[in-house]
Amino acid sequence: MKNISILGSTGSIGTQTLEIVRENKDKIKVHALSGNSNINLLERQINEFEPAICAVMNKENAEKLKSRISGKTKVVCGMDGLVQSVCANGVDIAVTAISGMIGLKPTIEAIRCGKDIALANKETLVAGGEMVMSLARKHNVNIMPVDSEHSAIFQSLMGNEVNKIKKILLTASGGPFRGKTLKELETVSLADTLNHPNWSMGKKITVDSATLMNKGLEAIEAKWLFDLTPEQIEVVVHPQSIIHSAVEYDDHSVIAQMGNPDMKIPIQLALFYPYRLKNNLKSLDLFEIGKLTFEKPDMNTFKCLKLAFEAMKIGKSMPIVLNKANELAVEMLIRKEIKFLDIQNMVEDIMLRHTPVEAASFDEILEIAKWTAANIKKPN
Ligand code: NAD
Ligand code: MG
């Protein structure tokens, strides 16, 4: 029996993780849940999964939730609460299904407590990759990728431990605006931006998929997970999202992983590796799909992808600035305070004004994030 703690159990990855638990009750149990504002869903999840702990970021929400449930589940709050929920005795795996850099602290603490990590929260590695990976090595902790591309790379590496990676092919759907010009992007609406062709996900990652920042963040995530240089990472737009990514070796053999676009496949593998459990998903029907196509990404139009590669090459504090500025800009877009193209322009503008410094400790990372928040400029 494995015991898991889910950081962000009310979100897209969190709820899909719980579906897997529901289908495998004899193999996996929920020790802790957590969330931010959706306490109605947290209440239902507590009643169904009876966790020992539930962490709620907001104190008032935590009090409300406490008054609604039986005493079996301990409700904790704030960042301390999130940390408690992953570090609790009895937790084997922390599923980091929280969105944004806020996931960095609980992930670091979970690693320090020796918990294995099923990592969905890519912003954590973008901001703190060096620290997270070295802590994981120090504490002998496994970091299992949940992101479908990284799971595909992980699977394409299986059995090739003695071989060096020549490069990885990081596939991208291209998002809802693939093929659009800068002029056309000037007038896209928030609803268009949130309408992803292949995946149903949380709002932040859906916006990132439309700007291609998601692929940029994933490139940086891949750098840290698989110890790659920026030159070893090639982004390939593949609109059908059937090949989830691939690895090319020195003999020019390319190994890819395929499947229908369903996050339950990589989540399940991250939880049960090396076992591939049966599930109720559909088989891949290549006849129905008919054609798999590939394109070069348009980095001049979708500047976020180029900016992410630049930040990765510059290193030091630059990826933190890229990530934080993007998080803030995406929040502004969702609140309808800025337009779609403002995101890439705001990220570019603050990167130009930032002088990179070493930022490998948690406090240093936080300082850079604060600097970014204080210095980001909304367009006039
Ligand atoms: P989501 O918005 O659907 O869910 C986010 C979860 O985090 C929610 O439970 C929310 O309550 C919680 N949360 C957010 N802010 C919080 C805070 N301040 N305190 C406590 N809890 C907080 O997001 P998602 O789509 O599930 O994505 C989660 C992470 O997984 C992201 O980093 C994303 O990039 C990554 N990811 C998601 C998918 C996907 O298909 N959804 C695929 C690959 C990677
Ligand atoms: Mg992905």
Walk me through this protein's architecture.
- This protein is an alpha/beta fold and 380 residues long.
- A 7-stranded parallel beta sheet has the order 4-3-2-1-5-6-7, with helices on both faces. It has a 4-stranded mixed beta sheet with strand order 9-8-10-11, with helices on one face.
- It has 2 domains: 2-145, NAD(P)-binding Rossmann-like Domain (Rossmann fold); 150-262 and 295-375, RNA polymerase sigma factor, region 2, helix turn helix motif (Rna Polymerase Sigma Factor, Chain: A, Orthogonal Bundle), CATH 1.10.1740.
- The chain is 47% helix and 15% strand.
- The structure holds nicotinamide-adenine-dinucleotide (NAD) and magnesium ion.
- Residues 147-149, 218 line the site of magnesium ion (MG).
Query: How much of the sequence is in beta strands?
Result: 15-25%
- Superfamily (CATH H level) name of the largest domain: RNA polymerase sigma factor, region 2, helix turn helix motif
- Element pattern in H and E: EHEHEHEHEHEHEHEHHHHEEEHHHHHH
The assembly state of the depicted protein chains is single chain
How is the biggest beta sheet arranged? 7 strands, parallel
Mean pLDDT: 97
Distance between the termini: 56 Å
Shape: globular
Low confidence ranges: none
Bound molecules: nicotinamide-adenine-dinucleotide, magnesium ion
**Percent range for helical residues?**
40-55%
Q: How are the strands ordered across the major sheet?
A: 4-3-2-1-5-6-7
- SS-derived structural category: alpha/beta
Domain 1-deoxy-D-xylulose 5-phosphate reductoisomerase C-terminal: 143-226
Catalytic activity: 2-C-methyl-D-erythritol 4-phosphate + NADP(+) = 1-deoxy-D-xylulose 5-phosphate + NADPH + H(+)
GO biological process, one term: isopentenyl diphosphate biosynthetic process, methylerythritol 4-phosphate pathway involved in terpenoid biosynthetic process
Family: Belongs to the DXR family.
